[in-house]
Amino acid sequence: MEYFVIAQRELVLAFNLVGVHGQVALNRKEALQAFYRVTGRSVDNALPVDEHPKVLIISEDVSAMIEEEVVDWQKGAKFPLIVEIPPINGHLQGKKSLTDSIREAVGISV
């Protein structure tokens, strides 16, 4: 498995249409369960090692629910790589878009 998504129902269904598995998370508990399952931290129902995704796609609202855990994971520089996407209703207040982040990093406005 290359990709896995944790997000709202609509986003998970949309990704399923293109073959990306996922799990719906509507609250912190569900978000943590899904995150631990995918990263292998769950003892009960972790994905088999050969099924761990290389890229974990998380909607911004889910990421905000488990922000501390996501940041700790990213600091450890382990797979899966975590990519945040905007939820159905658009970017959360105060979040930069990917384009804005690239512009800031590169220093060029196109």
Describe the structure concisely.
The chain is an alpha/beta fold and 110 residues long. It has helices at 9-17, 28-39, 60-65, 67-75, 98-106; strands spanning 3-7, 21-24, 55-59, 81-85. The protein is globular and about 45 Å long.
Task: Explain the overall architecture.
The chain is an alpha/beta fold. 41% of the residues lie in helices and 17% in strands. The protein has five helices and four strands, in the order βαβαβααβα. The protein has helices spanning 9-17, 28-39, 60-65, 67-75, 98-106; strands at 3-7, 21-24, 55-59, 81-85. The chain has a four-stranded parallel sheet, with helices on both faces. The radius of gyration is 14 Å and the shape is globular. The termini are far apart. 22% of the residues are buried.
Please give the oligomerization state of what you see. single chain
- Strand fraction: 15-25%
The side-by-side strand order for the widest beta sheet comes to 2-1-3-4
Radius of gyration: 14 Å
* Helical amount: 40-55%
Between the first and last Cα atoms, what is the distance in angstroms? 35 Å
Contiguous helical run count:
5
Described by strand count, sense and barrel closure, the largest sheet is: 4 strands, parallel
